[in-house]
């Protein structure tokens, strides 16, 4: 009987830590959306302008941004825990990095791309969560032409296309 209570207490503590406290301390995971900064790295702004000129529409800009950021960054199964410090990279560090990036960081970069492009407003982007790999996984929903599209940038390199997101546990 004591083992049951120990396991139950451990589970309760885990869920409080993962689903409540983490939202208070981890950047871009909070209960409110982060503000897109006024000033962003110049080469990031240049890339946004290049993609916007090529796009011509919100849908096409979303596709181009998904392709670009999805090739540059990827989520990894256990690196969210092993590379915990990546959750706290500032904008310049995150932008200069490539390869592994936590979902919260790559989604924040995508939000910046979308809003700075002029095709989207904050109201057009929602953060969503699923429980995957024993931690919350964040993806975005983006409104294009009154339709919400799921966008999971960090999972593009695993073959997820625009419109899909990571959906599994464990």
Structural features, described:
The chain has helices at residues 2-25, 42-55, 58-72, 79-82, 91-96, 103-117; strands at 73-74, 99-100, 125-132, 135-144, 147-151. The chain has a 3-stranded antiparallel beta sheet with strand order 3-4-5, covered by helices on one side. A two-stranded parallel sheet has the order 1-2. α2 packs across α6. The protein has one domain. It is built from 6 helices and 5 strands. It is elongated and about 65 Å long. With 170 residues, the protein is of the alpha+beta class. The chain starts with a helix and ends in a 19-residue tail after the last strand.
Order the strands across the largest sheet as they lie in space. 3-4-5
* Main sheet summary: 3 strands, antiparallel
How many helices? The count is 6
Q: What helical percentage do the residues reach?
A: 40-55%
How far apart the termini lie comes to 27 Å
| Strand residue content | 15-25%
Q: Kindly provide the radius of gyration, computed on alpha-carbon positions and rounded to a whole number of angstroms.
A: 17 Å
Strand elements, count = 5
Could you say which structural class the secondary elements and strand pairing correspond to?
alpha+beta
Count of the separate structural domains: 1
User: How are helices and strands ordered from N to C?
Assistant: HHHEHHEHEEE
**Mean model confidence by pLDDT:** 89
| Low-pLDDT runs | none
Shape: elongated
Sum up the structure in keywords.
alpha+beta; 5 strands; two-stranded parallel ribbon; elongated; 170 residues; three-stranded antiparallel beta sheet
């Amino acid at each position: 009987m004591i083992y049951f209570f120990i396991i139950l207490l451990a589970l309760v503590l885990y869920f409080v830590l993962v689903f409540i406290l983490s939202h208070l301390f981890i950047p871009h995971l909070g209960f409110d959306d982060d503000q897109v900064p006024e000033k962003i790295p110049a080469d990031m702004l240049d890339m946004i302008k290049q993609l916007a000129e090529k796009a011509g529409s919100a849908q096409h800009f979303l596709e181009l941004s998904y392709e670009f950021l999805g090739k540059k960054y990827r989520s990894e199964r256990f690196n969210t825990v092993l590379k915990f410090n990546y959750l706290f990279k500032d904008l310049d560090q995150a932008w200069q990095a490539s390869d592994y990036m936590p979902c919260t960081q790559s989604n924040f970069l995508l939000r910046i791309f979308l809003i700075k492009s002029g095709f989207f407003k904050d109201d057009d982007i929602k953060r969503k969560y699923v429980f995957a790999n024993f931690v919350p996984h964040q993806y975005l929903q983006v409104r294009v032409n009154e339709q919400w599209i799921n966008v999971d940038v960090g999972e593009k390199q695993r073959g997820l296309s625009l419109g899909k997101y990571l959906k599994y546990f464990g």
